[in-house]
Specification:
Elements (H helix, E strand, L loop, with lengths): L3 E6 L3 H12 L23 E8 L9 H4 L22 E2 L29 H11 L3 E4 L6 H14 L2 E4 L9 H9 L3 E3 L9 H14 L3 E11 L2 H5 L7 H12 L11 E8 L6 E12 L3 E12 H22 L3 E2 L1 H7 L9 H13 L5
Parallel strand pairs: 1-2, 1-4, 2-3, 4-5, 5-6, 6-11, 7-8
Antiparallel strand pairs: 7-9, 9-10
Length: 366
């Protein structure tokens, strides 16, 4: 098989886990623990190759990707320490709203932004993507980076490469953006990656279980804490609107009757520096069952946040490549519904899974 060539915007914890995972799963006789698919359309994890990378942190810009993924403030688990040199240097990107002002006050996760004079232009980034031969661009920018994400989407469209939007800025689920990708026959998967086994997918499955077992869900909350730069960034509540909408809609969409706003609260709770990349979810669901008798469920979920993302993105990349191989453009509705929190069309998880398997098999176009 040919290599799947990817460009990445944002070399943070999630990019680190993904790139470690690509190397980790190259060992053919290794038991594929943690993979949803060992192979997709003939493509294995080791067939993915990073050919371009962009960041704005001076501790990463100019370094080989294999070094940059372990540079501060990255703090995710190192499960594959011997990532070989890629020969790809991290290039300076565009700042825009990619950094929240309050972050400079936290020494644990300070972001050292390269000077404005060194910022890349749109032409710089488009040329870098084109010259690298990338098949697709992955968005790993921080939550709330609305302008910056749209900037990189424009770069992808101009460069003619596919786009995977792992963050909660609504691109694939926005009809206007979706139309532009369809008109250019370029595939896109988005928006906002749904972790392999994280807070959102667990909450969705339990909400669906309540529905199927005849339990009336009356109130629920999902509170999350973590110590990575994602949680630090989200201390600025002004950057949280799309994130809260994405996570809330993901749960509401499996209910036959949506809960009133006062009865559902889903979103990040706080930044706890010593948790590093460990994310802890506190989930409570209150309902009524047979005889109108009340019940409640409480759950505590602890996961390493970024590998949880990588376990899904590694499949999204290969599905996106299948679309390119098949000449399919526009939103990939089936993979997006299974991999993302805020897809253009929300399907129940079992249906989303079935549709994704059909897409992989080639019996469903999108």
């Amino acid at each position: 098989m040919t290599k799947i060539k990817i460009a990445i915007a944002g070399i943070g914890n999630c990019a680190s886990s993904l790139i470690q995972g690509i190397e980790y799963y190259k060992i053919e006789d290794k038991e594929p623990i943690g993979l949803m698919h060992r192979e997709i359309g003939g493509y294995k994890p080791g067939d993915i190759k990073v050919v371009a990378a962009f960041d704005i942190d001076a501790r990463k810009v100019g370094k080989d990707v294999s070094e940059a993924i372990f540079a501060p403030p990255n703090c995710t688990a190192v499960f594959c320490p011997d990532v070989p040199s890629t020969g790809v240097k991290v290039k300076m990107g565009r700042v825009l709203d990619g950094v929240s002002d309050h972050m400079k006050n936290y020494k644990e996760s300070q972001t050292f932004v390269v000077s404005k004079e060194q910022e890349a232009t749109k032409a710089d980034i488009v040329n870098e993507i084109k010259n690298s031969g990338a098949d697709m661009l992955l968005n790993y920018l921080p939550v709330g980076s609305e302008e910056a994400v749209r900037f990189y989407v424009e770069c992808a469209l101009e460069a003619g490469v596919a786009f995977i939007n792992n963050m909660p800025v609504f691109i694939a689920s926005n009809p206007e953006w979706a139309k532009r990708f369809e008109e250019k026959n370029i595939p896109i998967i988005g928006d906002d990656i749904k972790a392999q086994l994280g807070a959102t997918i667990t909450h969705r499955i339990l909400a669906d279980l309540f529905e199927k077992r005849g339990v009336k869900l009356e109130r629920t909350y999902q509170l999350n804490t973590g110590g990575n730069t994602d949680f630090l960034n989200m201390l600025n509540r002004n950057r949280l609107a799309s994130k809260k909408e994405s996570k809330t809609e993901a749960v509401q969409s499996v209910l036959s009757h949506k809960l009133e706003d006062d009865n559902i609260h889903i979103g990040p709770s706080d930044y706890v520096a010593w948790q590093k990349d460990n994310k802890v979810c506190f989930l409570r669901m209150e309902g009524r069952l047979f005889g109108d008798v009340p019940m409640n469920l409480e759950l505590r979920l602890s996961v390493e946040d970024s590998p949880n993302s990588g376990g899904v993105v590694i499949d999204a990349i290969r599905c996106c490549k299948l679309a390119l191989d098949r000449g399919i453009g526009g939103v990939l509705y089936s993979p997006a519904s299974y991999f993302m929190k805020h897809p253009a069309i929300q399907y129940p998880d079992d249906e989303a899974h079935r549709r994704t398997e059909e897409f992989i098999a080639g019996t469903r176009e999108r």
